[in-house]
Amino acid sequence: MNPHSRFWIFIFFFISGFTGLIYEVVWTRLLTRVMGNTHYSVATVLTIFMAGLALGSYLGGRWIDRKSNPLVLYAALEAIIGIYCLLIPSMIEWASPLFQWVYQTQTESYTEASLYRFLICGAILLVPTSCMGATLPVLSKYVSRGSIFVGRDVGTLYSFNTFGAVFGALTSAFLFMRFLGVLATIWLAASLNIGIAVIIYLLFRPHMSRENPKEPSPEKEKIEFNAHTIPILLAFGLSGLCALTYQVAWNRILSLLLGSSIYAFSLILTTFILGLALGTIIFSQKVNQLKNPFKVFGILQLGIGISALMSIPHFGNIPFVNRWVYQNWSMEFATIQWSVFLVIFSLLFIPTFLMG
User: What is the mean pLDDT of residues 249-271?
Assistant: First the structure.
């Protein structure tokens, strides 16, 4: 792949991350209308979103190994995401009777009611989130120039996607939904997804008509699970569980102190993803220089735990910081939101950076 094509693929994946987080914020806004604005609702949306990403990443990794050209599959995934997401507001409206049935009949068991709501949301959101998850392994095969550089290439690709997600999480609430409305925001994001598919088809057709060049290595690489691989995968899965637990818990704590508006949710999400993006882009450039990646992984996990524990006592100071801002700065919307962002950033940046 030539440098010009490589550059545009990174730009496309940046836009893909941008639209993905726009969808997450918008879906949270839409679903809280039928599920209530509680931390259970937010946890439900986040769980389904991440479950779809995980499922799509797993399936996409298997599909792409059987295909000769990743670019064709990526364009198809972007088109499916855009078209399907245009229909989601209507799907939520169609599902309103189901939510109504849950609230009217499942009054004795909150657990059963939550399970039914989870299944309804899952049925609506699983397809587009799975397609989003599949885009990373698909493009990873296209941009990776060999197993020696896979850490740097995939890390850089993921960081572009994550930086796009940062802008999506921030602008979705403060710019697009505020001035355009929810439906117009969805149309904008869907247009970008469909536009990526169209541009790839029109401008990258020569690359789509031939097979993806194979690596020059004479030996066919094969991943085998052994005594060392399984514990590593389990540890990485456990770190993912902890990361989403942190996100839900931090969202719960900060929403009590900052309010449960879509703006507060957007700022929490922006800070979380910004830390991931910066951590990814920096460590992806250093990963090939690490002599013992497993030891570094353990140190990073220790740092995440310690920094997360050290932030706990400072959450109680947020109301006093807000009071100082109100008394000494101004009550303007932009000033208040900037102060909220700085507070959240100071508390969450270190652990999220280490996660990335």
Answer: 78
Q: Are 328 and 278 in contact (CB under 8 A)?
A: no
Q: In the prediction, which pLDDT does 63 show?
A: 74
Token pair in block for residue 267: 């700022």
Please work out, in degrees rounded to the nearest 5, the angle formed at the alpha carbon of residue 321 by the alpha carbons of 315 and 322.
105
Q: What is the pLDDT of residues 332-353, one digit of tens each?
A: 777 777 888 888 888 888 999 9
pLDDT tens digit string along 60-73? Answer: 777 776 666 788 88
Report the amino acid identity of residue 52. Answer: G
Cα 282 to the center of its chain, rounded Å? 18
CA pair distance 195, 7, nearest whole angstrom: 17
Mean pLDDT along residues 185-211: 81
Give the contacts of 272 (CB within 8 A, at least 6 positions apart): 247, 250, 348, 352
What is the C-alpha to C-alpha distance for residues 224 and 222, in angstroms, rounded to an integer? 6
Average pLDDT over the chain, rounded to an integer: 80
Residue whose C-alpha is closest to residue 157's, from 236, 74, 59: 74
C-alpha of 202 from chain center: 28
What pLDDT is attached to residue 190? 95
